[in-house]
Amino acid sequence: MRVLLSMVAVLVGVLPAGAVAAAPAPAPAPSASASAPTVGAAPLTWGVAPSTRKGPDGRAAFNYKLDPGAELTDYAGISNYSGQPITVDLYASDAFTTPSGGFDLLPAAQEPTDVGTWVAFESRYRRLVIPSKSRVDVPFRLTVPRNATPGDHAGGIVASIAEPGTDAGGNRVRVDRRVGARIYLRVTGELAPAFTVERLDAGYDGTFNPLRGGTVTATYRVRNTGNVRLTGTPRVEVAGPFGIGRRSAGAAALPEILPGGEYTATVQVRGAAPLFRLDVDFGLSPVAVNASMPVPAATGHTAVWAWPWPQAVLLLLLAAGVWLLLYRRRAHARALATARAEGRAEATTSPETGPELSDANPTKSRGT
């Protein structure tokens, strides 16, 4: 089960250590609880949330800003909303950005290397038996290494329940159902936010209507190469040679991308004229999360062929129509000229009226 974690982050100070206390569990929070089927009819439901020695304090995530070498003690409230006791394994892990831009933690079998290693629970708290309808507030120690790199480090505290199950092939497997609360830790030092466009591909889809443009689909992949959580608003511009037929389109803002994380998405520009070769320019205006600082824009460029086949067919049809019209006019003119020539020839021919008398030897009449 995917770790369900809360999104909001607030600043927290150092809290004093204290004993673990069991208390009645509040109503479950959907974003910080999980359910798992059991042998009986009632499912197991549990959750994790930031807490204090006396109970939850309303924080939605563990959010810290600490210097390298700093230490603090905080509490995680593990609540059992079920009608029976549960046994949970408690640990911390590193976070990463999923391909769809989500927030997730490393699988249970994968060892953390970052903030997940900075959180320590006493051995007696790593596996807890929590009575039904109650909560246990567990202290933990967070120690920032002295050589920790400045910037944002993300992770989470997880409470998992392992159960036997079967996979799609019917094989018996161990199903690890877990839920957790996010950790956002900013180590003081120089912040260097940066997005990099690692890939930009484009394709052109024309239309059979020669009077309408097609659609350019730009697929981009960006990576957070800085040390601060980032979001941003993408925009794509499409233009033909010499900037002819320029069109642009934007898209929804990116989700928060952790340092080192990448995100892939598409932007469509509709109504792009098929001008043989189209330039596609991608721009991303990044925004740092929980930090007021300028962030350099991320850009990318590619080109795509856009053949005007419908327009070419229309042009051929128009050319054929003009040729046919001219051909008919010329044929008519030739026929008319032939008819006039024949008429003139007939007009110059005289009709037959008998033999013609000659004046060369006129017949004279003589008297006697």
From TrEMBL:
Keywords: Membrane, Signal, Transmembrane, Transmembrane helix
Top-level lineage group: Bacteria
Residue numbers spanned by region Disordered: 340-368
Segments passing through the bilayer: 305-326
Signal peptide: 1-21
Name assigned to this protein: WxL protein peptidoglycan domain-containing protein
Source organism of the structure: Phytohabitans kaempferiae
Taxonomy of the source species: Bacteria, Bacillati, Actinomycetota, Actinomycetes, Micromonosporales
